What does this fold into?
Amino acid sequence: MSSSEADRAAIRVNTETLLSAVINSDAEMAASVWSETGRLMPPHRPTVTGRKAIAAYFRGLFAKQELYFTFTATQLQVSGEMAVERVEYRAIVRSRDGEDTTEDRGKGIHVYRRESDGSWKLSDDIWNSDVMQKK
It folds into this structure.
């Protein structure tokens, strides 16, 4: 396997780990794919900076909601120590009390950086919905 193929495979594993963590409401696993200084940029919320803060964000989210996601990577570009992955997603979000269910679809960008140990970690994650919100 070439270096580029190995990098792409490692990044795909991180994306799959994140997806699995979200589906299983595992905040620590979700945060494990981020760099120590990573930034999570959810829609309609302030940026969440740092792996510990990202884990806390996910713990709060998972306490209120169950999420069922699919990601489709539409493009992955690796250049040196950085990689950019474009994704499309579909999601079903259910409140833990069972009162609300929302279906969503949209797109996002994952920016990965190679760590000093050679591993790839998310440094930035931003997404937005394709679904119009009713007011």
Observations:
- Residues 3-23 form the longest helix (21 residues).
- Helices lie at 3-23, 27-32, 51-64.
- The first strand starts at residue 34 and ends at 41.
